Amino acid sequence: MSDYPEIAARFARNTAGHQMVVLHEDGLYRHLKFLNPEHGSIGSFQLITWPYNLVIKAGWTFHFDINATEDMFDLFRRTAPTGQINPGYWSEKVRAGREEVEGYDPDRLKWEIATTIAQWMRDDLDIRAEKHGKKLGFTQRELNARPGLRKELARQVRQEWRAANRQLRKAVDEHFFSDFADYNIEYESEARRALSDFSFRPEGDDSEFPHYFADWHEWRVKGYTPGFLHCCFAIRQGIDLWDAARKQVAA
Prior knowledge:
Layout: H1 5-14, E1 19-26, E2 29-35, E3 45-50, E4 53-57, E5 61-65, H2 72-78, H3 87-91, E6 94-96, E7 102-104, H4 106-135, H5 140-145, H6 147-177, H7 188-197, E8 222-224, H8 226-250
Antiparallel strand pairs: 1-2, 2-3, 3-4, 4-5, 5-6, 7-8
Helix pairs in contact: 4-6
């Protein structure tokens, strides 16, 4: 199963019925075109190779090179199973088109936000339990030494904690994801502005600082672009079709 199921499924649909056309073949000098004859150029792509180099043209163009591998088909065969891709390693070999390899990914941003909120709430429950315990007269040493006590205290404050949790999640949803939000986080500049502007303190919260995304500059919100992943699948499919054709000739 692919690590990029949506891209893989879209690629499979767009390239169903593809056949290989050899435009040029002279040893490692190859120019191959792959297309569905019924669809013409729609969804077609080309592979061009010469010693230590491979160019993929599929609406996007990427030029790969590596001095250690004369036949670039061998590089892609060795570094990913049939039908699979290895964008992490392959991206390191891109010589031209690097600006198209990675781009802002809203789904990564959503994952970072969700992860941060979950951590906030874990910390908040622990803080509320500790404050409750001190109000009941327990010392810090007792709280630290008795895990069962902290668990019971957490149970006692869970209702108010859940209310604060709902407030926080509602505030985040309205700020980032609501149809009436002031930001469109599908765009990186808007997402950065939204992160910078967010600040929220649940009702009844007497902590020193409100919730805000202090470390968002360190988040990894970029991923491989759909275009680069499409080209990776195209390279792998093209090599598989080439190998199948060579086996058929040999038989």
